Write a sequence for this structure.
């Protein structure tokens, strides 16, 4: 475990160096969040419909989404890993006495976490002092807050486990381009990156909730704003854990299979 | 112009060497635009209308801005990727050639794979044109064309500013994406839905409403004021400060070496 932690640390500290990029990211995300909120506000103005959540709940959801974007963004991929596979450098990594799956997993976690550490606080602070109902409110209860943190961590692991499948698939396809593009669109849409999942029509929603993508950002944010409560929280978190195990299991299986007949590109 | 076409055909041929990559990128462009469209569809299936605009009216607006943006991204991409030209010293080579710099930068990169996004825009047009309830007389058609041209020019102007900033920062500023990509995302809906403040900003600072909101009102028959129809042309002077800023940047250009 120690060796994996040091991989994690190297990447994490490396990621913390990009301060200027972080400021640019913060302002972009802030503008983006503001835009989404104003847009939903416009939709909420024609008050004759049933809203799946109240506007303050929605504001909290959207700001959390911006603040923790780096944990859940689908479009970030570590190009070093893709290059390692397509250039053949992965051979060196295979010589090391480490599990390549765990190592890549750790590296990915570290990059994403380092970005979030730099970015989430300013966004959350400013979002908290905005006038009601556009601000982010506190979690509905202390207990919900704790569950939110736990669930966010689970969701984060689910996302990383999912992206691992994309990395591993490059062993088979060499060029990651196609599958990567597909994955980005699918994850973004089904995880609630375009519109929050509760806004989908009921029959589609039922299916979307079961998919692994709903176990990413959707579950923790809905726990935070009180949309999920009681037993629902328990079920969604169990589902998260289930998906995590399933994805890691499939990932490891694919990895072992791929490595059995791996062809190293070039020399 | 002949030179530009020559450049374009070279770039097209070279991009066609990597057909799979080209197709994939186009599909990716199409998919991202498509999920955005699905998002809008589900929002409207719940809410029916926003700020008094119906789904197909909003789609018309989205199609216009998507067309304008993807055309700008296709042909003015050289400016969008300008930080690369600066940081690898390519711009030195451009300056010593006896041709206009802008032409050369424009011709350095033409992104034909933006056709994916354009196809999406065309598909939306095909859906929205009959269902939007607009009676398509010749002046309405002219309005749409003017909106697209105006949008193309304003987005081009934004890309030029984005590039000019690189003269001073070397790096591209991710921050600027708020105005280009952000402009596209905001522009899916008529800008009035975001409220007064945003409207004013995008009228007087960055003239997006001039080719989007106001002519759109004329298009869907909210107003009979013919003046709104030609407003996209009023946005053209926006290019002047952009080009001035570019010239200013060129004059202060210090080579990064190689």
């Amino acid at each position: 475990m120690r060796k994996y932690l040091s991989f994690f640390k190297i990447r994490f500290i490396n990621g913390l160096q990009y301060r200027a990029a972080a400021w640019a990211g913060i302002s972009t995300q802030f503008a983006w969040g503001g835009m989404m909120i104003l847009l939903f506000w416009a939709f909420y103005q024609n008050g004759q419909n049933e809203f799946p959540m109240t506007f303050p709940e929605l504001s909290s959801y959207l700001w959390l989404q911006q603040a923790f974007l780096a944990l859940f963004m689908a479009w970030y991929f570590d190009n070093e890993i893709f290059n390692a596979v397509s250039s053949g450098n992965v051979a060196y990594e295979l010589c090391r006495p480490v599990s390549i799956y765990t190592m890549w997993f750790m590296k990915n976690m570290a990059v994403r976490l380092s970005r979030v550490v730099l970015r989430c606080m300013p966004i959350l602070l400013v979002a908290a002092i905005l006038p009601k109902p556009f601000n982010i409110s506190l979690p509905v209860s202390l207990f919900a807050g704790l569950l939110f943190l736990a669930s966010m961590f689970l969701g984060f692991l689910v996302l990383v486990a999912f992206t691992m499948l994309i990395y591993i698939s490059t062993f088979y396809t060499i060029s990651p381009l196609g599958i990567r593009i597909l994955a980005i669109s699918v994850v973004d849409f089904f995880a609630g990156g375009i519109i929050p999942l509760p806004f989908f029509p009921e029959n589609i929603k039922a299916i979307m909730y079961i998919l692994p993508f709903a176990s990413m950002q959707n579950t923790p944010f809905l726990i935070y704003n009180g949309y999920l409560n009681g037993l629902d929280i328990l079920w969604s978190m169990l589902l998260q854990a289930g998906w995590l195990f399933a994805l890691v299991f499939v990932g490891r299986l694919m990895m072992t299979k791929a490595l059995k007949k791996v062809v190293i590109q070039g020399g | 112009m002949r030179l530009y076409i020559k450049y374009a055909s070279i770039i097209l041929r070279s991009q066609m060497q990597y057909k799979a990559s080209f197709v994939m990128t186009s599909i990716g462009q199409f998919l991202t635009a498509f999920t955005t469209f699905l998002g809008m569809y589900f929002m409207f299936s719940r809410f029916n209308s926003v700020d008094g605009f119906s789904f197909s009216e909003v789609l018309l607006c989205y199609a216009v801005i998507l067309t304008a943006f993807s055309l700008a991204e296709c042909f003015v991409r050289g400016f969008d990727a300008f930080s690369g030209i600066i940081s690898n010293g390519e711009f030195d080579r451009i300056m010593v050639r006896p041709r206009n710099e802008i032409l050369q930068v424009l011709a350095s990169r033409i992104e034909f794979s933006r056709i994916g996004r354009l196809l999406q825009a065309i598909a939306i047009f095909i859906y929205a044109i009959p269902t939007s309830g607009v009676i398509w007389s010749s002046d309405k058609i002219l309005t749409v064309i003017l909106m697209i041209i105006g949008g193309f020019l304003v987005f081009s102007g934004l890309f030029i500013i984005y590039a000019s900033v690189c003269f001073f920062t070397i790096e591209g500023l991710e921050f600027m994406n708020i105005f280009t990509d952000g402009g596209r995302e905001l522009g899916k809906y008529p800008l009035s839905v975001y409220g007064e403040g945003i409207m004013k900003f995008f009228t007087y600072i960055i003239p997006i409403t001039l080719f989007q909101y106001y002519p759109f009102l004329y298009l869907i028959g909210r107003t009979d004021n013919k003046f709104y129809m030609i407003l996209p042309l009023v946005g053209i002077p926006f290019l002047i400060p952009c080009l001035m800023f570019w010239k200013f940047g060129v004059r202060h250009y210090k080579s990064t070496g190689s």
Notes: DSSP finds 16 helices and two strands in chain B. The two ends of chain B are 30 Å apart (CA to CA).
